[in-house]
Structures are given as C-alpha cells and as structure tokens.
Amino acid sequence: MSELQTLAASPVKIVTPPPGPAAAARIAEARAFLSPSLIHVYPLMVARASGCMVEDVDGNVFLDAQAGVAAASTGHCHPTVADAIARQARTLIHICGTDFFYPGYGELAARLGGIADGFEKAATGQASGWQTFLTNSGTEAVEAAMKLARHHTGRPNFIAFRGGFHGRSYGSLSLTASKSKYRRHFGPLLPGVFHAPYGDATFIEKELFKRTVSPDDVAAIVVEPVLGEGGYVVPNPSFLEKLRALCDTHGILLVFDEVQSGMGRTGRMLAAEHFGVVPDIFTLAKGLASGMPLGALLARKRVMTWPAGSHGSTCGGNPVCIASALATLDLLESTLVASSERVGQVLKARLTEKLMGQPQVEEVRGLGLMIGVEFNSAAEAARVAQACFRRGLLVLECGDKAIRLSPPLVITEPQAEEAASIFTAVTTDAS
Ligand code: PMP
Fold first, then answer.
1. pTM to 2 decimals?
2. Using one digit for the tens of pLDDT, what is the confidence trace for 29-44?
3. Domains of the chain, with CATH numbers?
4. Ligand 1 pocket mutation, candidates 259, 294, 297, 298, criterion most atoms within 8 A of CB
5. pLDDT bracket for residue 429 (50, 70, 90)
6. Cα 311 to middle of ligand 1, angstroms
7. What whole-number distance in Å separates Cα of residue 219 and Cα of residue 313?
C-alpha cells in the first residue's frame, strides 16, 4: 500500500491536541503575511490528504466531513484524478480556451451538455441542447450567468433570495444575501437586484412584481435548488415549480446555482433532478473538478446568443482543470453519485436517530451527502464545530445556527458511522 492509500484507510487519530506544536508554529509564521479577510475556522494546518482523511503537520489524522467546502468530490488526491492531472500537466498546461481550441474543452462541454439534456429529457420529454462556458470559480460562473441573462433578454434586473450565497465578486455578491458581513463596507453593489424569502415564490408575484419591479424588467431569477451556505435547506418542490412557471409567464430566465449542490453532492448528478424542474442556465464549480479551480456556465443553446468576444477568460477552462473534471465525471457517473445517495441516507439516518430528541438540536435535514444539522443557537453550532475539530472531525457551520456535513463522495459507510458518532458525542457532551 502506498503512503497515501494508508492514510485513506487510517482511522481518526489525534496524537497531540490540535493545533500541535508544528501547526501552531507554522500558523504563527504565516499569519503576518496572510490577508486578514481569510476566515480560518479552526487552526488546521494540512500536510496531506487522501480519500476522506486529512493529516496535519503534527501527524493528527482527521475525518473530513466538509471536503474543502464541498469541493473534493472524489476525495482527496484520488489516484485516477491525480494521474489525469499529472498526464495533462506534461502535455499542455495552458493555451487559453477563449482564443484557441483544445480537445478537453469540447469534450467536457459535450459531457455536461449530455447530462443537462438527459435530465431535461427525463423531466420534460424534450432536450434543448446545452452549451458551456468554463470559468475558474463559482463566482465567475455566476457573473457569466448574470451577463448572459442581461445580454440575452435585454433586461437589467435580477431576483435572488434571502439566505442565498452566490459568490463574492460584485455581481454575485449583489445576489448573495446569506450574511451581511459579506456585503459590509463593499457597497454600492449592483443596482437592480431584488430579494425574496427563500422558499416563497408568492412573494415575488404578490410583492415584488406588484410594488417594486415589473416582471418585464427582470432578466433572471437566480436560485440555489438546495440552499448551501445559507443553511443546507431543501425547499418544497412546489417552490421551484412556481419559479419555473413565473419565468415562463414573463419571459424571465431561471438560473439554478448548483455550484454547491451539483456534481453528485445530493445523491443526483444535479440537485434539480430531485425536483424535476429544468432551469435555462446552470452554474457549476466546486465538485466539478475535485477541487481544481474550474466552474461552468451551462445554458440552453437558444439562450447562448452572445457573440464572439462578448465574454471570455484567460485561464477559465484550463486544460489541467478539465482533465481533472473529465476524470471526476467518470468516477461520479460510474459509482459516486449512487454512493452519495446510499451513504448519505446512512449518515442522515444515523444523525437523526442519535440527535433528534437532544434539546440543543432542532433538525437534521438534507439530500445525499449534503446534510445540515440545525442547533438551537449560533453559539452551540460554533461550539460543536470547534469541538469536532479537536476530536478529529472536520465540519463547517452554515446558515445562522447550523452545521453542514458535506464529506467527499467516496466516504464509506463505516466512515459515515464514525462521523456520526464523533458528531453525536461532541453534541451531547456539553463540557
Ligand atoms: N454559488 C454557491 C451556491 C456557492 O456555494 C459558492 C461558494 N460557496 C459560490 C457560488 C461561489 O463559488 P467560489 O467560491 O468558487 O467563487
């Protein structure tokens, strides 16, 4: 067994309370040079990672139930993905997909288009044909969606949702409404963005369209089909159906931001598949290339009406990231989407069994391996996240008082059981 395979099979192992001496020293050294805007949720200094296991510089081994913010979809350093990256890095690292052709860009676009077509056919009996623009990140995919929506419709405004997170660049930040700290001191943001409560399509019709924005001035409604950073909230299916109907009635484009919920995270390749609602545009990133920087704007052909030169990116769709995405798609399609559904059910069931009835836990919810646990206070969620870290489980907070579990999709049932037991022990141990 290679060293990395050994790490992937390792149990959680805390040899020195984190941060140990090496981590503490390196964090202290680095801090002076780092932007203070970086969050650093807990003092984890990672040396290497494999599968679902992460080793810090002191030799502590953690079970990763956050996957680098839901991006390491195939697990850390999956050998197939790592080989594809290495092979591509020896062949072509960069040439610029905006100005030139190379095979991977078309291949990935065709595969993503096939996924969207397959879903659309299953949901509606029709396949529009979909086209792809590749970016370096989720926020850029959202920017591209906003630009395309304005360009295609000739309309200026957007509707987004309270609790939504769409990125931190100016367009996407103007949609983001999960926490005011993301917006604080950055205004003025993009004009013409109207927010509705997440889950409430009636508000758009009865309030926004009636009082603040005429529907024929709206380019797009942008929504996460499952709320990510805002709390891992699964909406009632009728919410997305109503949004689709509103868009159809008023010639508005429907954008599903699946940067977090896409690529198998919810136990389906796209979260939209749970609801049978087909948008006009998808945005993807995070798990798309197993954590390599790649995002995608996927739109129906008839919407992709912007001409040559109207949008581009120097490194977006970089060949190495594409090689990673193609290998990732192979793994997702062959086993990992199914495994996300199966192991996700085990993890959610175990957390529900063990936690519901605990006074500090209000809800366990989610789809596939996108699972949220709602606590009764922000302080309790923060305490649990920090204590999980010290016990060897990596989780992140989300929403106002929740914790998200979004492990790599390669997580096994025994690892899911281990994650649930550490999480439960920490939650029920109020010390
Ligand atoms: N959209 C959603 C739904 C996200 O969760 C995120 C990141 N958390 C983004 C967009 C922004 O992605 P990135 O950080 O890659 O720019």
1. 0.98
2. 999 999 999 999 999 9
3. 3-77+337-428 (3.90.1150.10), 89-331 (3.40.640.10)
4. 259
5. confident
6. 20
7. 23
